[in-house]
Amino acid sequence: MYQLEVARSINFQGFSEERIKGCQEAGIMKIEISSCNPVIDFDEEEMKQKAEEWVRVCKKYGVEIISVHLPFGRDWELCSCDDAVREKAMAQYMKLIEIFKPIKPQRFILHPGYPRVPAEERPYRKENFKKNGAIIAEAIKPAKLAVENMPQDCLGNTADELIELVEGMDNVCVCFDSNHWYQEKPHEALAKFAKMKKKVETLHISDYDGVVEKHWLAGEGVVEWNKIIGLLEEMDYRGPFLHECGRTYTSEQVVEATERLFKAYNEQKQ
Hints:
Shape: globular
Structural class: alpha/beta
Order of helices and strands: EHEHEHEHEHEHEHEH
CATH architecture: Alpha-Beta Barrel
Largest sheet: 8 strands, parallel
CATH topology: TIM Barrel
Number of strands: 8
Strand content: 5-15%
């Protein structure tokens, strides 16, 4: 029987002791903190205090922060062709990394870029991402950098392009987001990672309508979960089944949804 540990993402703006207590009571003992999206000129002391609070509260309830999602958005584009934007983003990422490293996460999650990428800029943006992504990957050690697939016309919006972006990069893995696939179906994309043996080490699990990202609870949309879970087992994936669904879903609902998915998958194998 194939089964994975349940985890979930919590946005820093919605972080509270009550939410962490709710995770513990539901049996979710691992979380991701999403730092999306502070303004580019964030208050360093305020962010440091927030990070210390996350650690204090999570330690109180025995919940482990296994990953931190770095910010994204137009001001945070380290792939930008605008030197000023790119350099400012890199400087601010480095400040955040120094604030977040004491949390000791296993991974930092990073988006390759933001939507509305002009076709003529795409090659240059790929080059900029690989260069700056490598710098970040080195800076966060011993944590790993997990590059996430993206929707719309962002960089990394197909499995092939995401594989190209992480190819040859040291200390880098893939974060597979089931809600971000517009050009291909989620299981088709995951099959490419499996075939090419690209390391998917963490997940962002949620559902959608196949048209635009929704961050619904898994099982509420069109994602073919038996195929997804089957490919994860084939890849011998042993990381977290980490949900990145809307904050209105309770931790109990997240656990129940996971149990339904794996029960259905294991039953159909028999």
